[in-house]
Protein backbone atom coordinates (compact mmCIF):
# COMPACT_ATOMS: atom_id res chain seq x y z
CA UNK A 1 0.00 0.00 0.00
CA UNK A 2 1.41 3.37 -1.01
CA UNK A 3 0.23 6.94 -0.81
CA UNK A 4 0.01 7.10 -4.63
CA UNK A 5 -1.91 5.27 -7.34
CA UNK A 6 0.18 3.67 -10.07
CA UNK A 7 0.09 5.56 -13.34
CA UNK A 8 0.78 3.91 -16.69
CA UNK A 9 2.18 7.19 -18.05
CA UNK A 10 4.54 7.70 -15.12
CA UNK A 11 5.55 4.04 -15.29
CA UNK A 12 6.47 4.65 -18.93
CA UNK A 13 8.65 7.59 -17.87
CA UNK A 14 10.07 5.45 -15.07
CA UNK A 15 11.12 2.87 -17.63
CA UNK A 16 13.03 5.60 -19.45
CA UNK A 17 14.71 6.62 -16.18
CA UNK A 18 15.79 3.04 -15.61
CA UNK A 19 17.01 2.70 -19.19
CA UNK A 20 19.10 5.84 -18.70
CA UNK A 21 20.60 4.70 -15.40
CA UNK A 22 21.29 1.04 -16.18
CA UNK A 23 24.14 1.40 -18.71
CA UNK A 24 25.82 4.12 -16.65
CA UNK A 25 25.80 1.91 -13.59
CA UNK A 26 26.95 -1.11 -15.59
CA UNK A 27 29.83 0.80 -17.21
CA UNK A 28 31.07 1.86 -13.80
CA UNK A 29 30.63 -1.52 -12.13
CA UNK A 30 28.03 -0.26 -9.64
CA UNK A 31 25.23 -2.69 -8.68
CA UNK A 32 21.87 -1.61 -10.09
CA UNK A 33 20.37 -2.18 -6.63
CA UNK A 34 22.08 1.06 -5.60
CA UNK A 35 19.64 3.16 -7.60
CA UNK A 36 16.05 4.02 -6.69
CA UNK A 37 13.42 6.62 -7.48
CA UNK A 38 9.85 7.67 -6.76
CA UNK A 39 8.06 9.84 -9.32
CA UNK A 40 4.63 11.32 -8.57
CA UNK A 41 2.32 14.07 -9.71
CA UNK A 42 -0.94 15.42 -8.27
CA UNK A 43 -4.00 13.28 -8.87
CA UNK A 44 -7.15 14.36 -10.63
CA UNK A 45 -9.61 16.54 -8.69
CA UNK A 46 -7.39 16.62 -5.57
CA UNK A 47 -7.38 12.83 -5.39
CA UNK A 48 -4.50 10.53 -4.54
CA UNK A 49 -1.26 11.35 -6.34
CA UNK A 50 -0.31 9.28 -9.38
CA UNK A 51 3.09 7.67 -9.35
CA UNK A 52 5.71 5.12 -10.29
CA UNK A 53 8.71 3.84 -8.36
CA UNK A 54 11.73 1.57 -8.37
CA UNK A 55 13.12 0.12 -5.12
CA UNK A 56 10.98 2.52 -3.14
CA UNK A 57 11.63 0.63 0.11
CA UNK A 58 15.45 0.71 -0.14
CA UNK A 59 16.80 1.63 3.30
CA UNK A 60 19.74 3.89 2.61
CA UNK A 61 21.95 6.39 4.38
CA UNK A 62 20.06 9.58 3.50
CA UNK A 63 22.74 12.29 3.63
CA UNK A 64 21.11 15.68 4.12
CA UNK A 65 17.61 14.67 2.99
CA UNK A 66 16.85 14.08 6.68
CA UNK A 67 16.94 17.85 7.12
CA UNK A 68 13.48 18.12 5.57
CA UNK A 69 12.26 15.87 8.41
CA UNK A 70 14.02 18.08 10.95
CA UNK A 71 12.40 21.16 9.44
CA UNK A 72 8.94 19.60 9.63
CA UNK A 73 9.58 18.33 13.17
CA UNK A 74 10.55 21.84 14.23
CA UNK A 75 7.34 23.28 12.80
CA UNK A 76 5.26 20.59 14.52
CA UNK A 77 6.86 21.34 17.89
CA UNK A 78 6.51 25.09 17.41
CA UNK A 79 2.85 24.47 16.64
CA UNK A 80 2.19 22.40 19.78
CA UNK A 81 4.25 24.73 21.99
CA UNK A 82 6.94 22.24 22.96
CA UNK A 83 9.53 24.33 21.12
CA UNK A 84 9.87 28.06 21.73
CA UNK A 85 10.34 30.37 18.76
CA UNK A 86 13.50 32.47 18.76
CA UNK A 87 15.83 34.12 16.29
CA UNK A 88 18.57 31.51 16.41
CA UNK A 89 16.06 28.76 15.64
CA UNK A 90 14.80 30.73 12.64
CA UNK A 91 18.35 31.23 11.43
CA UNK A 92 19.19 27.56 11.91
CA UNK A 93 16.09 26.37 10.02
CA UNK A 94 17.00 28.64 7.11
CA UNK A 95 20.66 27.65 6.97
CA UNK A 96 19.90 23.94 7.47
CA UNK A 97 18.00 23.95 4.16
CA UNK A 98 19.47 26.87 2.20
CA UNK A 99 23.13 25.89 2.70
CA UNK A 100 22.56 22.35 4.04
CA UNK A 101 24.42 23.36 7.21
CA UNK A 102 25.19 20.44 9.51
CA UNK A 103 25.93 22.82 12.38
CA UNK A 104 22.47 24.38 12.03
CA UNK A 105 20.87 20.94 11.86
CA UNK A 106 22.64 19.74 14.96
CA UNK A 107 21.53 22.83 16.87
CA UNK A 108 17.94 22.00 15.95
CA UNK A 109 18.40 18.37 17.00
CA UNK A 110 19.65 19.58 20.39
CA UNK A 111 16.55 21.75 20.78
CA UNK A 112 14.12 19.02 19.72
CA UNK A 113 15.64 16.30 21.88
CA UNK A 114 17.14 18.11 24.88
CA UNK A 115 20.54 16.55 24.22
CA UNK A 116 24.01 17.77 23.41
CA UNK A 117 26.82 15.78 21.85
CA UNK A 118 29.97 16.10 23.90
CA UNK A 119 32.15 14.16 26.32
CA UNK A 120 31.40 10.63 27.50
CA UNK A 121 28.67 9.84 30.05
CA UNK A 122 28.35 6.97 32.50
CA UNK A 123 26.03 4.12 31.52
CA UNK A 124 22.96 5.41 33.34
CA UNK A 125 23.27 8.94 32.03
CA UNK A 126 23.98 7.64 28.54
CA UNK A 127 20.82 5.53 28.58
CA UNK A 128 18.76 8.62 29.40
CA UNK A 129 20.55 10.60 26.72
CA UNK A 130 19.80 7.95 24.09
CA UNK A 131 16.14 7.85 25.10
CA UNK A 132 15.83 11.61 24.61
CA UNK A 133 17.60 11.41 21.26
CA UNK A 134 14.78 9.15 20.00
CA UNK A 135 12.35 12.08 20.11
CA UNK A 136 12.51 12.84 16.38
CA UNK A 137 11.80 9.20 15.56
CA UNK A 138 8.81 9.34 17.89
CA UNK A 139 7.44 12.45 16.18
CA UNK A 140 7.18 10.66 12.85
CA UNK A 141 6.25 7.24 14.23
CA UNK A 142 3.20 8.88 15.84
CA UNK A 143 1.85 9.67 12.36
CA UNK A 144 1.50 5.90 11.77
CA UNK A 145 2.21 6.20 8.06
CA UNK A 146 3.33 2.89 6.52
CA UNK A 147 5.88 4.69 4.33
CA UNK A 148 7.82 5.68 7.45
CA UNK A 149 8.40 2.14 8.69
CA UNK A 150 12.12 1.44 9.11
CA UNK A 151 13.41 5.00 8.93
CA UNK A 152 15.84 6.34 11.54
CA UNK A 153 16.47 9.98 12.49
CA UNK A 154 18.37 9.67 15.79
CA UNK A 155 21.86 10.64 14.63
CA UNK A 156 23.41 14.06 14.15
CA UNK A 157 24.89 15.12 10.82
CA UNK A 158 28.66 14.76 10.62
CA UNK A 159 31.32 15.55 8.03
CA UNK A 160 33.47 12.61 9.05
CA UNK A 161 33.74 10.18 11.97
CA UNK A 162 31.97 10.55 15.34
CA UNK A 163 33.45 10.97 18.80
CA UNK A 164 32.27 10.89 22.40
CA UNK A 165 28.53 10.49 22.96
CA UNK A 166 27.82 10.49 19.24
CA UNK A 167 30.14 7.52 18.65
CA UNK A 168 28.74 5.58 21.62
CA UNK A 169 25.17 6.29 20.51
CA UNK A 170 25.88 5.12 16.97
CA UNK A 171 27.49 1.90 18.20
CA UNK A 172 24.54 1.18 20.52
CA UNK A 173 21.78 2.15 18.09
CA UNK A 174 19.96 -0.93 16.73
CA UNK A 175 19.18 1.06 13.58
CA UNK A 176 22.77 2.29 13.18
CA UNK A 177 23.13 5.42 11.09
CA UNK A 178 20.27 7.62 10.01
CA UNK A 179 18.34 5.98 7.20
CA UNK A 180 15.45 6.81 4.91
CA UNK A 181 13.68 5.10 2.06
CA UNK A 182 12.75 6.82 -1.19
CA UNK A 183 9.07 6.24 -0.42
CA UNK A 184 9.40 7.89 3.02
CA UNK A 185 11.02 10.96 1.51
CA UNK A 186 8.47 11.08 -1.31
CA UNK A 187 5.56 10.80 1.13
CA UNK A 188 6.81 13.69 3.25
CA UNK A 189 7.32 15.89 0.18
CA UNK A 190 3.85 14.99 -1.04
CA UNK A 191 2.38 16.06 2.30
CA UNK A 192 4.34 19.32 2.27
CA UNK A 193 3.12 20.26 -1.19
CA UNK A 194 -0.35 18.72 -1.09
CA UNK A 195 -3.52 19.41 0.80
CA UNK A 196 -2.59 17.94 4.16
CA UNK A 197 -3.41 18.14 7.85
CA UNK A 198 0.22 17.47 8.80
CA UNK A 199 0.88 21.19 9.32
CA UNK A 200 -1.24 24.32 9.43
CA UNK A 201 -1.36 26.32 6.22
CA UNK A 202 0.99 28.97 7.62
CA UNK A 203 3.57 26.44 8.80
CA UNK A 204 3.36 24.51 5.55
CA UNK A 205 4.10 27.78 3.75
CA UNK A 206 7.21 28.26 5.90
CA UNK A 207 8.50 24.81 4.98
CA UNK A 208 7.80 25.41 1.29
CA UNK A 209 9.56 28.77 1.36
CA UNK A 210 12.68 27.21 2.87
CA UNK A 211 12.75 24.52 0.17
CA UNK A 212 12.38 26.96 -2.74
CA UNK A 213 15.34 27.20 -5.14
CA UNK A 214 15.85 30.07 -7.54
CA UNK A 215 17.55 29.01 -10.79
CA UNK A 216 18.60 32.65 -11.25
CA UNK A 217 20.09 32.96 -7.78
CA UNK A 218 23.61 34.43 -7.59
CA UNK A 219 24.36 31.44 -5.33
CA UNK A 220 23.45 28.91 -8.05
CA UNK A 221 27.11 28.27 -8.84
CA UNK A 222 27.92 27.29 -5.27
CA UNK A 223 27.69 23.60 -4.50
CA UNK A 224 26.01 24.23 -1.16
CA UNK A 225 23.00 25.75 -2.98
CA UNK A 226 22.35 22.22 -4.31
CA UNK A 227 21.13 22.95 -7.81
CA UNK A 228 24.26 22.31 -9.89
CA UNK A 229 24.71 18.57 -10.25
CA UNK A 230 21.23 17.76 -8.96
CA UNK A 231 17.76 17.13 -10.38
CA UNK A 232 16.90 20.80 -10.84
CA UNK A 233 20.08 21.71 -12.71
CA UNK A 234 18.88 21.22 -16.31
CA UNK A 235 15.14 21.91 -16.13
CA UNK A 236 13.55 24.22 -18.71
CA UNK A 237 13.83 27.94 -18.19
CA UNK A 238 10.89 29.22 -16.20
CA UNK A 239 10.52 26.07 -14.08
CA UNK A 240 9.70 26.68 -10.42
CA UNK A 241 11.80 24.49 -8.13
CA UNK A 242 11.68 23.30 -4.53
CA UNK A 243 14.29 20.77 -3.47
CA UNK A 244 16.67 19.33 -0.91
CA UNK A 245 19.70 17.32 -1.90
CA UNK A 246 22.55 15.58 -0.16
CA UNK A 247 25.89 13.99 -0.96
CA UNK A 248 28.59 12.20 0.95
CA UNK A 249 32.06 11.41 -0.22
CA UNK A 250 34.48 9.37 1.90
CA UNK A 251 33.56 9.73 5.57
CA UNK A 252 35.77 7.04 7.05
CA UNK A 253 32.69 4.81 7.38
CA UNK A 254 31.57 2.68 4.43
CA UNK A 255 28.01 2.58 5.80
CA UNK A 256 27.59 6.26 4.99
CA UNK A 257 30.10 7.07 2.24
CA UNK A 258 29.46 7.86 -1.43
CA UNK A 259 25.77 8.65 -1.64
CA UNK A 260 24.12 11.31 -3.77
CA UNK A 261 20.38 11.92 -3.40
CA UNK A 262 17.84 14.57 -4.26
CA UNK A 263 14.15 15.22 -3.68
CA UNK A 264 12.49 17.73 -5.96
CA UNK A 265 9.17 19.39 -6.64
CA UNK A 266 8.96 21.16 -9.99
CA UNK A 267 6.29 23.12 -11.82
CA UNK A 268 7.22 23.33 -15.50
CA UNK A 269 6.52 26.41 -17.65
CA UNK A 270 3.46 24.67 -19.06
CA UNK A 271 2.05 24.08 -15.57
CA UNK A 272 2.93 20.39 -15.33
CA UNK A 273 3.86 19.53 -11.74
CA UNK A 274 5.85 16.56 -10.51
CA UNK A 275 7.72 15.30 -7.46
CA UNK A 276 10.86 13.24 -8.00
CA UNK A 277 13.05 11.58 -5.39
CA UNK A 278 16.23 9.77 -6.45
CA UNK A 279 18.63 7.82 -4.23
CA UNK A 280 22.05 6.69 -5.50
CA UNK A 281 25.07 4.95 -4.02
CA UNK A 282 28.55 4.44 -5.44
CA UNK A 283 31.67 6.58 -5.68
CA UNK A 284 31.47 7.12 -9.43
CA UNK A 285 27.85 8.29 -9.17
CA UNK A 286 28.45 10.44 -6.09
CA UNK A 287 31.18 12.27 -8.00
CA UNK A 288 29.15 12.64 -11.22
CA UNK A 289 27.63 16.09 -11.69
CA UNK A 290 25.70 15.04 -14.81
CA UNK A 291 23.78 11.94 -13.67
CA UNK A 292 20.97 13.53 -11.65
CA UNK A 293 20.47 16.58 -13.93
CA UNK A 294 19.95 14.24 -16.88
CA UNK A 295 17.19 12.41 -15.00
CA UNK A 296 15.45 15.64 -14.05
CA UNK A 297 15.65 16.83 -17.67
CA UNK A 298 14.33 13.51 -18.98
CA UNK A 299 11.24 13.66 -16.79
CA UNK A 300 10.55 17.30 -17.69
CA UNK A 301 10.90 16.60 -21.42
CA UNK A 302 8.46 13.69 -21.28
CA UNK A 303 5.87 15.60 -19.27
CA UNK A 304 6.10 18.62 -21.56
CA UNK A 305 5.42 16.36 -24.55
CA UNK A 306 2.17 14.97 -23.16
Give a structural overview.
The two termini are 28 Å apart. β6 (259-267) and β7 (273-281) form a beta hairpin. The chain has one domain (5-304): DD-peptidase/beta-lactamase superfamily (Beta-lactamase, 3-Layer(aba) Sandwich). Strands 1-3-2-7-6-5-4 form a seven-stranded mixed β-sheet, with helices on both faces. 41% of the residues lie in helices and 14% in strands. By secondary structure, it is an alpha+beta fold. The model has no long low-confidence stretch (mean pLDDT 96).
Helix content: 40-55%
CATH homologous superfamily? Answer: DD-peptidase/beta-lactamase superfamily
Strand-residue proportion: 5-15%
Instruction: Supply the number of structural domains.
Output: 1
Question: How many strands, what sense, and barrel or not for the largest sheet?
Answer: 7 strands, mixed
CATH top level assignment: Alpha Beta
**Strand line-up across the major sheet:** 1-3-2-7-6-5-4
The backbone outline, from C-alpha atoms, is globular
**What is the CA-CA span between the terminal residues?**
28 Å
Average pLDDT rating: 96
Give me the CATH fold name. Answer: Beta-lactamase
- Low-confidence runs of at least 5 consecutive residues: none
If you compute it from the alpha carbons, what radius of gyration comes out, rounded to the nearest whole angstrom?
19 Å
Based on helices, strands and strand pairing, what is the structural class? Answer: alpha+beta
What order do the helices and strands follow? EHEEHHHHHHHHEEEEHH
Number of helices: 11
Oligomer: single chain
CATH architecture assignment name: 3-Layer(aba) Sandwich
**Overall strand count:** 7
Amino acid sequence: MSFFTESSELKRIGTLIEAHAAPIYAARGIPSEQFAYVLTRPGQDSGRPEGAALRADWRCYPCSLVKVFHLVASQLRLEDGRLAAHGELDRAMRDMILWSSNSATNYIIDLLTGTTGDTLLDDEAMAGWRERREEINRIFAALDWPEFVGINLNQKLMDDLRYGREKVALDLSPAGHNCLTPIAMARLMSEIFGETTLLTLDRRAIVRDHLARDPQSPYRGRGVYQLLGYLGDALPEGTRIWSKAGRTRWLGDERAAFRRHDTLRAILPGGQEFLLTVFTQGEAIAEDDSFLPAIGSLVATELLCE
